[in-house]
Amino acid sequence: MTGPSRRELLTGSAATLVAASLPPPVAAQTVEKPSGIAPILRYTRPADVWVEALPVGNGRLGAMMFGGITGERLQLNEDTFFAGSPYDPVNPEALSALPEVRRLIFAGEYKQAQDLADAKLMGKPLRQMAYQPLGDVLLTFPGLEGVREYSRSLDLDGAIATTRFRTGSALFTRELFASAVDQVIVLRLTSNRPGSLTFNLSMTSPQISDSRVEGGNTIVLSGVGPTQQGVEGKLRFETRVRVLATKGSVTAQNNDIYVEQADEVVILISAATAYRRFGDISGDPAALAASALDNATIKPVDRLLADHQSDYRALFRRVSIDLGPPSADSTLTTDERIRRSAELADPTLAALYFQYGRYLLICSSRPGTQPANLQGIWNEKTNPSWGSKWTLNINAQMNYWPAEPTNLADCVEPLVRLIRDLSITGARTAQKMYGARGWVVHNNTDLWRASAPVDGAVWSLWPLGGAWLCQHLWDHYDYSRDKAFLADVYPLIKGCALFFLDTLVTDPASGYLVTVPSMSPENRHLEGVSICAGPAMDNQLLRDLFSQVAQAASLLGRDADLRRQMLATRAKLAPDKIGAGGYLQEWLQDWDARAPEQTHRHVSHLYALHPGSAINRRDTPELATAARRTLEIRTDDATGWGIGWRVNLWARLGDGERAYKVLGMLLEPRRTYPNMFDSHPPFQIDGNFGGTAGIAEMLVQSWGGEVHLLPALPRAWPTGHITGIRVRGDGQIDLHWQDGRPDQVIMRSGKGGNFTLRYVQNSVKLRIPAGGERRLRWDGAKLVGA
After folding, report:
1. In this protein, which residues make up the domain named Glycosyl hydrolase family 95 N-terminal (predicted)?
2. Which of 237, 365, 498, 501 could form a disulfide with 411 if both were Cys (CB 3.0 to 4.6 A apart)?
3. Based on the domain organization, do 249 and 303 belong to the same domain?
């Protein structure tokens, strides 16, 4: 899976290349307008703060629209704009110190081991580089008084943010969208009163930059990213803003542009950096930004909008959802619905949240772009929380949980390229830090694909980041059954597994092969100490990884000896265990009851329940019961992403009422900002994606060779539908339910195959020909052919 180059994205030649890079659809995709209530976020006042502004994005460029009246602010981002420049953080003392760290762990001297790891194993610098804002476009409008009928909205189906109000006899409309087709952000200003658009436009940036006006109608802001952690800021960037007015006048005033008495104004925004790859910043941002802007300038704005919406809707309209009829509550503004979510019973809010997550993924992850980071693509701070980069012990992975099931597999392409990059930088880390083959990455990475542990051993000395990322490579294959894709990524999952073949060590106490040093992300088994050997999550991930490498090798007819070695090594890993308190054990030793944080936000050892499936109610009921006990001890109240994970876990346990309760907690104002961004707090986008995935899991699950229908349907959603949901084996389902039971099921498959559909204890086996479909209905007792 490869995407277009950044130059192709910016010069307008990407459209055919993107189309060629996308996986084939499982069935003919429709772009018809979905039925039901329109998925729109609505407000009756401008945004006062950033988390009230409305996001648009095309995967590479992002903007936040505040919807001001006399002053409008568009805050801008470009997905490759990070601090620093290419660097290698591997600590040169790590390899020689590693044996002593291991010895101390096996001797039970955990504090001493962690202290030595902090001194000798951590990356240099200790922090990674942060994602940066480009700056703001500011519009100032004189003479707007007596405003009435104000509205602000984000239309998820049209991917357009709109501000509208009246003053005097004039109706003013401002529309913002980010086009992936033309690689520009577009702001259109109109009024029903000719000659009434007068404003000043300027640009500001927190970066080291200079601005000028070119051609009388284009502001050009050029600069360089900041130095951080001693890594010199060398990444050049350029942002261009062009003003195109119908009638009236456009003049340059110093470094601003002044528009007077225009009928309509179109503002085009382009941006680029010198980034070409993690080790190459030789690009020409001025040429790239100018080319995209010039190409967009020659297209009428109606064509820009039409092309943008056609491209976007081809993704968004693949899935529709209806969780029940709208209530009177659905007419409230979105911020009021969130504020009162605990007291309102409105199924359309959950449906809106589901589609908002899909909208955000489309806007922040498209073929050829960077993957969605901790904030997707939207960030206003030069020092954002956790660097707004990629945290690999849950957050980056959670961003992509909805991609396969909610029919956005195309959006996984940036994640695949991230893994491909990390297999290169991670090979260097594996050799220099561990003396091992293959590749490794710890709990964080940035634009420069740093793969050494950072921040501190208590948080990051966890070498399984790559193993978890590889699950997404397998998932992408398992949903599509595209053997060409599997062959393409096989060296990545094989290389990841080779690292562990070289680094697993026999635990002298138990005799199992263990990862050491490691940790159970980011939980402490002693006060201030997380370092350990062989935590449960590591074993769960490695069992999946070794099985998948072996299965891939068999499917591709390769590496018979390696396949046998994978399965033999897998058999030497510690199994999941039930602790003395009936919980699923988090560590090799039964430390759970003594752990300092009994309600820790991470539930890492429940990976095998979700997103894995080795623990489930059907095959391992005792372990599933222990996982439930763990969730009860941890409690449902966590960070935004922690709650998002718990929705999925309760859904896997088949507890629709508990999943619904936890989803309600996610929708409360302390976990969801007025613009529906997830609140960690602060903003982290993974909670949005986890919530979307969780709703899908409540309705349709795909694991263990079966498709599970309505496995965790709550009583609050007795009637509804979800269409276009994808399942493993290259299948797609339209599911309608009535009175809590399946009413109509349509199953399709592009490649064809055998499928087993299950509802409660009833199951039906289907054989679907390539490109065919089967229709089923509930006859009151079982699923039968329609």
Report:
1. 41-276
2. 365
3. yes
